[in-house]
Design goal:
It is globular and about 55 Å long. It has 208 residues and is of the alpha+beta class. It is built from three helices and eleven strands. A hairpin with a 4-residue loop joins strand 5 (60-68) and strand 6. The longest helix is centred in the C-terminal third of the chain and has 15 residues, at 173-187. It has a five-stranded mixed β-sheet with strand order 7-4-9-8-11, sandwiched between helices. A three-stranded antiparallel β-sheet has the order 1-2-3, with no helix packed on it. Strands 6-5-10 form a three-stranded antiparallel β-sheet. It has helices at 90-102, 158-166, 173-187, and strands spanning 12-20, 25-32, 38-45, 49-54, 60-68, 73-77, 80-82, 104-116, 125-136, 152-157, 195-196. Residues 44-178 form the Nudix hydrolase domain. GO terms for molecular function: hydrolase activity. One of its GO terms (biological process) is ribose phosphate metabolic process. Keywords: Hydrolase.
Length: 208
């Protein structure tokens, strides 16, 4: 039996937006349950994100260390960012983030995995790409600020990232999911079986 997520939408009888922030907001929907009762569901409305697991010729992954205030930790992550423009092509956004955060470019791109980060409390959808054939980007480095101003960059083996995630030492969602997904792909049908970089993404439809 093949299991697969399917679209479904229960009736929303009322909705409100009690908070609107710079990039995200909070929505309260009154949702009709199957038995006819109505309950409120609060959740974060999020534009969506992309992340890039960039693999160099030595099998190392480009990672960044950045302070994340909500969890009060400095986390190791992979390059990632918001889909700032509605309908933006996620591949273009991923290429931009890889350039801005790591100042590299990649020639080979595949979709590694699509996830909802916290579907019980947010509609955030993330597409994680695998990028290979890495080389230095041309031009000046992107000027960073705030939490990104003191980011550390490193290249770490995939095996070390998988070990760290399973040991409870690495916690960033995109890093852990990306590393585990790539390990699974390498142990299964291989990278060539991954979806192409322009594969459709129903959670965040985009123009080609």
């Amino acid at each position: 039996m093949r299991i697969q997520d399917t679209p479904e939408e229960w009736s929303v009888t009322a909705t409100a937006t009690p908070f609107t922030g710079n990039k995200t907001s909070v929505r309260t929907d009154e949702v009709e349950m199957p038995d006819g009762s109505r309950v409120n569901r609060d959740y974060q409305v999020h534009p969506g994100s992309v992340a890039v697991l960039a693999l160099d010729e030595d099998g190392r992954v480009i990672v960044l260390r950045q302070y994340r205030h909500p969890v009060r930790q400095r986390l190791w992550e992979i390059p990632a960012g918001l889909l700032d423009i509605p309908g933006e092509n996620p591949l273009h956004a991923a290429q931009r983030e890889l350039y801005e955060e790591a100042h590299v470019k990649a020639e080979d791109w595949r979709v590694l995995i699509d996830v909802y980060t916290s579907p019980g409390g947010s509609d955030e959808a993330v597409r994680i790409f695998l990028a290979r054939e890495i080389s230095a980007a041309e031009g000046e480095r992107f000027e960073v600020a705030d939490e990104e101003a003191d980011m550390e960059l490193a290249r770490v083996s995939l095996e070390e990232l998988v070990r760290g995630a399973l040991a409870g030492e690495l916690h960033n969602t995109c890093l852990a999911m990306g590393a585990l997904a790539l390990q699974a792909a390498l142990s299964g049908d291989g990278i060539d079986a991954l979806r192409p970089a322009d594969a459709s993404w129903p959670a965040r439809p985009f123009a080609a």
